[in-house]
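Q: What structure does this chain adopt?
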Amino acid sequence: MDTSRPAWSDGRSAVAVHQSSVNHMQMRFKHRFLVFHDKVKTSKVFLRDCTVVSPYALLLFGGPITVKVRDNNLNLFTVWA
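A:
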């Protein structure tokens, strides 16, 4: 049984879910995208007030989308400030 926490990244470096978050003890998530309200750096970078969202929510509410087709694959990209 795998007891390691899921790996998260903010696009620049590794981040962890803060111990005060209800998601801290979760070992598996239905989707691989995490949104957060607060990011703080102490011993490492922690995310607070976070929730997992589906890719559909990101496509609908994530901002401008760039579409690229390559080798019969459709890639959708969003850029956040």
